[in-house]
Amino acid sequence: MLACILQVAAVSHPAPPATHRGDVSVVTQMSSIQLADLAPYSEFARAAYCSPTILTGWRCGQACEAVPGFEVSLTGGDDNRVQYYYVGYWPTENTVVVAHEGTDPTQLLADLTDANAFMERLDPMLFPGVDSSVEVHSGFANEHALTANIILKEVKSLISRYNANSVALVGHSLGGALAELDCVFMALNLPSSIAIKG
């Protein structure tokens, strides 16, 4: 959702009319097949909580077993100042996957990242061309900046090596916020022929 807000905010638009909760009249129920298609993405997000040493061989238990054949190429983070993250190639879908760990409530610096809720402008070096009026949660922006370039370099390498046609960005909690920032970041830094899923 954040990615949609940022993409819309980056272009000048008149303010939309006020919408009230009562105006929503249709809820679309997903089929069991549609839900099953989303399951691997939740497993990728779940695996992001595993330490990089376990992820390197894709040996993180049930989450890794649920997506066989996935090839991890980069892991990082310390579970505190920098959330765990990984990048890899999913041959079944010809997709590069980037996953970020969510907040670990036992890690003080991760908690402080969430608590740093002041708003700031997106870094123009990371987000070139995005209107300077667009603001995001400071803690999320600062955390994203710590890993953005190394992740982008690996994503580009995997796209080139495998001729991948899409990038999936996942995470839960803080990791979900980082994935949404990654969606905008990747859209600005990858060819338009690469589908961005997040």
Describe the structure.
The protein contains seven helices and seven strands. It has helices at 2-9, 32-47, 52-55, 62-65, 108-115, 138-162, 174-189, and strands at 71-76, 85-90, 95-100, 119-121, 135-137, 166-171, 195-197. It has a five-stranded mixed β-sheet with strand order 1-2-3-6-7, sandwiched between helices. The chain has a two-stranded antiparallel sheet with strand order 4-5. Helix 5 (108-115) crosses helix 6 (138-162). It is globular, with a radius of gyration of 17 Å. Residues 1-21 have low confidence and may be disordered.
Topology record:
Elements: H1 2-9, H2 32-47, H3 52-55, H4 62-65, E1 71-76, E2 85-90, E3 95-100, H5 108-115, E4 119-121, E5 135-137, H6 138-162, E6 166-171, H7 174-189, E7 195-197
Parallel strand pairs: 3-6, 6-7
Antiparallel strand pairs: 1-2, 2-3, 4-5
Helix pairs in contact: 1-7, 5-6, 6-7
Describe the structure concisely.
With 198 residues, this protein is an alpha/beta fold. Helix content is 41%, strand content 17%.
Question: What are the salient characteristics of this protein?
Answer:
198 residues, 7 helices, disordered N terminus, globular
